[in-house]
Amino acid sequence: MNTDPVATHPDLQFITLDVNGERYDVVTEPRRTLVDVLRHELRLTGTHVGCEHGICGACTVLVDERPVRACLMFAAQAEGARIRTVESLAEGGGGGVDELNDLQRAFSEHHALQCGFCTPGFLMLAEGFLAERPEASKEEIREVVASNLCRCTGYQTIVEAIDACATARRGACVTPCIPNSPADKEH
Question: pTM of the entire structure?
Fold first, then answer.
């Protein structure tokens, strides 16, 4: 008797996802979105579901280090890519306790969150943007964060938090911070 769920249920498929540096084997329907698989199959509930139309940005994750709306992507489309969720930002502090990374601390210090629902999406958007544009100006940051919706903060504190983190990251570099450059290994 065949007990393989993919063979016995032809409407299912087997996919392998690389999420936050870990490999996950998932059996799911081809129509399942990445956000649904992250939350319901992998129990990574930091990624939030908002509008489910790609408008609000609450579900933003990084796919190969680029911000993506996880509600608009099928999980199967992410196979073979590196996926990072908001859970990847916390740094291991030992003893099973994670510490906030510099971007998360900047959000806290600048009061860039209120209800917190949109915060994971903003964090992942900012993480991806700053990796690509470490020298971004406040105006560029303001333009990027306008793509996500927040009903509580008015965006100014979010812009200030991202700018403060970018400034601190640049200050930590002896040479300009260019991800994956030979000089980057010296930082």
Answer: 0.84
